[in-house]
Each structure stands twice: as structure tokens, then as C-alpha cells.
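User: Can you predict the 3D structure of Magnesium transport protein CorA? Sequence below.
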Amino acid sequence: MSMGVNLRKVGGFRKVGSLRTVRGLRKVARLTRRSPRVDLSHPARSPLGSSVVKCVTYRKGVRQSTARDDDLVEAVTRVRKDDDGFVWLGLHEPTEAEFGDVAELFDLHPLAVEDAVHAHQRPKVERYGQSLFAVFKTVCYVEHAELTATSEVVDTGEIMVFVGRDFVITVRHGRHGSLGPLREQLESTPEQLAQGPAAVLHAIADQVVDDYLAVTEAVQNDIDEVESEVFSPTGGRTADPGRIYQLKRELLELKRAAVPLGRPLQVLATQPMRVIAPEIQAYFRDVDDHLKRVADQIAAFDELLNSILQAHLAQVTVAQNEDMRKITAWAAIVAVPTMVCGVYGMNFDHMPELRWQYGYALVMGVIATACCALYRGFRRNGWL
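Assistant: Sure. Here are the predicted C-alpha cells for Magnesium transport protein CorA:
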């Protein structure tokens, strides 16, 4: 769809669809009142619980002061009329009804809209006409006082980004990964925002990968803790293998978020795109380098956890073998008096030393001597 058609659509949406917009906003407000869950992870989040987190216009990297930041139609009309700047619209878990007018206004592809609403997508980058659609998996380290076999270590979410010549739409899923601090950071460096929507896309990708690095460092502390426990003097008996398996599961969650992002970042860094200037692509290559570091750390952690688990199983096997040797040694010692007493317990009249005055003392002496000899032999061989 051409830019002129889009502008006509914006004008019609403004004039004819204003009543529908008001009704839609009222419907959103009613739905919000029924749902008490509101993300207040950052002050930019609307206290009303609407899916619209922020709608801001930028010109030459400077935020434009308006009477109403969330008047999307007015902002888009002004930007396209002046052919200068771009609009950054932030959404949080929008419904199909809430996102429908936005998709119509910006002429977003239905497949991308469906992915943005329903989430649970792999990291990817797709081109639809003159716009770009990117999916990032966000991660957050879940603090815990003690790692157990059921502890949640890594929590994941998603950020979908629509990028056009004059707009950026971010759709966030999950209760972490707020883009409010990132928006404030970018606004403090107007020269970066002046490069357009591609600069926002790069900043989001950079923040997502930086979060990967932070989570891997936190997970390493948990791995070090488990490793110290396993290789402690009593690790073979007291270490919980469930903690190791739990760390491997959570590491797999991190791997599913980080590793598939490698190919999309390579596409953003190497393939020519209309909405990304060549000078911005160099910054995506830097983000890709950081992601490769994360992938290497995840692979190393996985190998280390496998080694820790195998070492723990080997320690358990050794401990069991030691227990079996001790049981066998004591059974051999007990077998001596059992055998002697069994022999003299038989009902025969003619047995050696049966009626001798010192027969009992002799038998007990023989039993004690044999048991002591066996005990010293087992101790010398490390069985006891």
C-alpha cells in the first residue's frame, strides 16, 4: 500500500472512525477494569492498565511535547504530513481488538499481527513490504534464597518490534523487560534517536542481549554453588541431583531464547534493508558478537553441568561400593564365630575337646584371634 493511501486512511480514520476509536477505548477501559493485572514495572506503564504504554513523536531525535502523548492518529498524521521524524508506540500484551486499529493504521501484515498478539514465537526477522518485523525473547534471572530441585531460575518473555520508515511499534509480553528505561536512555542521547526507527531497533536488540549476559553471569553463580557442593568431602552423599537437573532445564530455557537470535542478527547486520541504514548495520554486528559470547557461555555451562552430574553419579557409585565393601568385610568377620559355633553346636558325643576343662576358652580364643586377623587385613586393604 502506498504512502498516499496510508495518509488517506489516516484521515478517514480520524474523521469517520473517531467515534469507533472512542468506543474502542471505552471497551478497552471496561476490559481493563475487569482484569486487575497491571504491569507497574516502570512508571511509564499506564495505571489504567491499557495496553498502550506510551505513544511519542520524535523529530531529529528530540521528543515532541504534545497535549496527549497517546493520541496515535494525531501523531501519525502530523509525522506523515511533515515527512519528518517518527512515532514510537509501545504496547503491552494487546488483544486482537486493541491491536486491530493499530494494524490497519500502519498497514501491518496479518501474519505479523497474529504473531504479535499471540506471542510464543521464536526469535526471527521478517520483511513485509516496506516494514520490518522482529521478535526477541527476553530473559530475567529469578532471585532465590536457595536453589532447589523446583526453583525457577530463568523467566522468559517476548518483545515484538514493527519498524517502518516513520514508526516503531513495540509489543511486549511478560512482566519483565520494560522498555521505559531504554526509552529514557535514548531520549538522553538525541543524536542516536535522530538516526530513526532503526536506532530504536538496535537499542532493543542490544538491551535484550545485555540481559542475556547478565543472566548467564547470575546462572554461573548457581553452577559454582552446585559444583562446590558436589566436590565437597560429603558431596557424594548429600548433593541433590535434582538441583543439577533443574539448572540444566533452566539453562535450556535460556538457550532457546538466545541461540536462535543469531541468524536474525546476522540478517540485520549483513543484508541490505530499506528501513536500516548501512551505518546502523555495523552496530548490529557488535550485538551479534555479544550474542556469540552468550552462546559460547551457555554451551560451556551445559558441558560443565554434564561433567558435574557425571562426577556426582561417580561419587555415588564409589560411596555405594565403599558401603558394600564394609558390609562384605563385617560379614566375613562374623562368619568365623558363626562357623565355629555351628560346628560345636552339633549333637555328637565324640568331638575334640568336648569335655576338656579349657575347651571353651580355647574356642573363644581361636574365634577372637581369627576375627582380629581378618579385621586388620581388611583395614590394611582399605575395606574398613
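Confidence is low (pLDDT under 50) at residues 1-49. Strands lie at 52-59, 62-63, 86-92, 124-128, 131-141, 154-163, 167-173.
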